[in-house]
Structures are given as C-alpha cells and as structure tokens.
C-alpha cells in the first residue's frame, strides 16, 4: 500500500487522500449493516485520476471499491483496501435538445436530476425510495428501481450509452465510434470473448429460457446476463452488463439515460383492507389496471409511521390484521385521470375494504402519502432495541403468487420468532421488503438469523422461483446464494464475465462473487448505545443532502459514525491509541466545524 500511495500522490493532491483513522472509518461506512475499514480513501475528481488509480492498483495488485452516496444496503460500498469516492465533483450533466435523454456523471443525486427535468415535463425513470439522496452512479450500478419504474423503466431499460474505465485503465465510450474502434484494436480478445459467450448462451435453449423467465420480474441477484440474449452488438452487451454490476466490472464515469414523461395529472389513494390476503388478491387484479404504483404495508409497517406528525388519522384505528395499499395513477389530461380513477375504484369495489375508496389529486396530500412510504425503513430502524442492527431484505415473486407467498413469508418470520418483523413493498411488481431487528452479539442470535435466511432462500428459490434480490443489489448479503438461485450454468456465465472484465479480481472483491459461504454473517456493523438521538439513526445517509458540513469535514451521518465508535472503544477498553486519535481529530471535524443549523434534520426520516 505504501508504494501505491507514493505513486498516486504524483497525480492526486494529498488533501484528497485520507489515511487517518477517523476519515477511513467514516467514509468506509455505508447505509448497510456491514462494516469494513479501508486502508486508504481517495476523493476522485475526474476520469484521469480514476485511470491513474486503477493503473496503480493493477500494478500493485490492490483491490479497489468505488462509492457514490453510500446509500446501498447490501454491503456493496465497503472495503478493507482502497475506497474511491465519486460523489462531489462528479455532478455534471447535459440535457439533450429534445429533452428525451440526459447525460450524467455518477455523483449527481437522483432527485436533482428530477428537478432539472421537471420544467420540461420529464423525469429520471429509476425511482428508488432513496432517490432524494442516492446518486446516479449507485442507482445504475445497482439497477435500483422503486415504486413506479418496475422492470420497464429501470436503468437497464433506459441506459443509452456510458463512459467506462476498465480494470486495466482503458477508457471506453460506447457512444463514440472512434472509442469503440480503438477498443476493438486494443482489446480484440475481449470483444471475441463477448461474442463467444453470446453465441454459447444462444445455443443453450434451456439457459435462454431460464434467463427470460428470471427477468420477467425484478431481479438483481448476480450480474445482469440478459444482454446476451437481448443484444447482438458486443458494445451493447458490454454496456448492459455494467448495469447492476455493483462496481465489480468497471468504473462508470458517465451515462446517458433516456428520460420518461412526468405526467401533469396525478392522483393517489390509501386503501384499507381487513387482512393481507384480501390486499394481495386486490393487487393481482390491479396489475393490468391504469395504476403506475401499488405499495403494500402490513399492520406493523403502518404502526411504525402512524404517530408521525400529520399522519393519516385512519392509520392508528386499523385492526391488528389490517393491510394497506397506497396506489397512484397518472395521465396527460384531467379526463383520462378521472377515467383511470373510476376504473381502479370499480376494481377495488369488488373487495372488502375498511373505508370507502378516496383518491386525491391535491399534491400536498398525496405527497405526504409517498413521503410516509419512503421513510418506512429508517423509521422502523429508529425504534429497534438499542444495540441491535436493522436489516432489510428484498425479494420478489410472480404477482399471481403474491397472496400465498406473503402468508408463507410471514409464517417463516413467526417460526423464527421475528414477530415484530415488518413486511411492505412494491406489490405491483411482486417485490417485498421485510425488516427485522437483529442482535449479533450471541452465537444463538447469529444462528437464528442464519436459519431464517435459509428458510427464506428455500421459499423464494425452490417454492416460488423468485428473486432473492429484487432491487437492492446482491452485495455481500446474498453473494453466497447467487449460484443457488441461478444454477451452475448461469453462475458460471457470470464468473466468465467477471474474469473477462477483471482478470485479477481487483474490482470490489467479495461483492456478488464471494467464496466464503458465511460472508453474510460476518463484519456486522456495531451500533452501540451512544445518545438518545443518535441511537435512532441507522446511518441511511438521507441527512447528507442538506448537511452544510458535508464535503468540508464530517457530514451529520459521518459524525454519528465516529461518535458511536468513540463510545464503543470507551466501553470495551480496546485500542486506546485509536480512541485517542479519534477523540483528538473529532474536536474540529465533528464539533467545531459542524454548522449546527439543524438542516440535516429536515431530510432525516426519524
């Protein structure tokens, strides 16, 4: 690492290279429930710097992980080697003249893209719940979706071109004929291998059928291997392999994305059902209706937000087995919107509901519904027992399987004594999240979690042929189970792709591909009791968009990370030198340079 550092200082100013304990710990922590501490953190500014970093890493055989906003949930943006930040200074964009596409660097926040597009009646299609904080690079490289984009407008479907920097430092612009010609000349074996893999896949009818079936629903388990059956041109295949690759294949320095229509007329409704089965059956009928989103919440999910300021009064009065659907419909004119509402209302009228169906087209009203939805995960996390970790899992089923699959999932959670687990998610896509609060301080607790996950995997993979990861990325969380879901042939194809792009295995090792069958049970992030306000935080990073100190010293999230570690070290008595260094550096970075204006709280879900 010392030789790498000497080399890289020739190209990157020392004030953007961090080796101190405090900033390595702070930047090495993301929104997920794992922690690794990088040996080195580099804040990059441009393609030239990233090329130098990768060349040097290749020279010294050192792993590199890239991070944008750090809102990922499955352990994608952490490392014990070199961490390269591509957030601030990676925020440039260029909107096409016809407004049908936009060129973006990876550090621009998804919501900022929507603000740019809104005056033109356009929007950024991927819509993860973290869109107000997540950055474009992470959204694309995780193929993050959300409440409306489903599989039809996710990053895979809307990416047009990209600028990529490969593990060997080579730059490829898939929109440039000159760049592609140069790549053909410099990497002929690479192109030949892509074509060979494509042709081999297409000769295998069984594998083709598997790929087609698996991507009919949301699926980000493993690499995206559908390009081999959907595209002829090797550069189109390369481009689409990058989507969802979680930084394991190349660095994305720029992407051109197709924009989508942001309809002027919108309405939403909260629908209240006596039980989850009735709600799920309603979803199956809504699938082909004029709705653009259907979110489902079990009673425990609703309980987490029913006491929030301005919460809907009906929420608190719901019976113990109730379930709620939040639905949205959109149109380009008022008449069509009214027709949509009438059609959806007619469908819902065939089911038992606790309250009459009421749509609202008043933006302040329906925005409150969706803000509530976006805050479910961090809100649930804020109520967890002190010292436990808030875990969110992310699975998908065929919509027709939803009623029984939901009942089976709840049964598994109860079987393993996760009685307070919350189930909610994108029901229209068969995509559920379930949240549990888990302690990892005792062997029996680790074993309980392991047995739960084994049963969930049996349920999703074997019984329903679903997706173990629908939109949050494989990360370290599901890396041991990629082959289990996909089978030997498909997984070997993914490994062949990884070997082609990254022959030394230096790009984000341990993510997607991990030989340790227990990696999902290791390196769990500690969340010790620290302060009554801090204890609620799950380090989601939503606060950082409004934090004035962010990018100067420590953001509000990074400040909390250091406060927690100081408290932990004091409690355990371990590593007094490290504790002393953290306390010394924190005085300025965490106290004197904190703006103290409370703006971070305005985007904090708790």
Task: Characterize the structure shown.
This protein has 606 residues and is α+β, with helices and mostly antiparallel strands. Helices cover 39% and strands 15% of the residues. The protein is built from 23 helices and 18 strands. The strands form 4 sheets. Strands 15-12-14-13-17-18-16 form a 7-stranded antiparallel β-sheet, sandwiched between helices. A 5-stranded antiparallel β-sheet has the order 5-6-10-8-9. A 4-stranded mixed β-sheet has the order 1-2-4-3, sandwiched between helices. Strand 8 and strand 9 form a beta hairpin. It starts with a helix and ends in a 14-residue tail after the last helix.
Brief write-up:
This protein has 23 helices and 18 strands.
Helix-strand makeup class: alpha+beta
Number of separate helices: 23
The biggest beta sheet is recorded as:
7 strands, antiparallel
Radius of gyration: 24 Å
Give average pLDDT, whole number. Answer: 95
Termini separation: 40 Å
Unreliable runs: none
What proportion of the residues form beta strands (DSSP E)?
A: 15-25%
How much helical structure, as a percent, in the residues?
A: 25-40%
Shape field: globular
Looking across the biggest beta sheet, what order are the strands in? 15-12-14-13-17-18-16
How many beta-strand elements? 18
Layout of secondary structure:
Layout: H1 2-8, E1 17-18, H2 21-27, E2 40-43, H3 47-60, E3 64-67, E4 82-85, E5 93-95, E6 101-104, H4 110-117, E7 122-123, H5 136-141, H6 155-158, E8 159-166, E9 171-173, H7 177-186, H8 188-203, H9 205-214, H10 227-230, H11 234-242, E10 250-258, E11 260-261, E12 265-273, H12 276-286, E13 293-298, H13 299-305, H14 313-316, E14 323-331, H15 334-348, E15 359-360, H16 363-374, H17 376-382, E16 389-396, H18 402-415, E17 422-426, E18 431-438, H19 443-463, H20 482-486, H21 488-501, H22 556-572, H23 576-592
Helix pairs in contact: 1-3, 2-22, 8-11, 8-21, 12-18, 18-19, 22-23
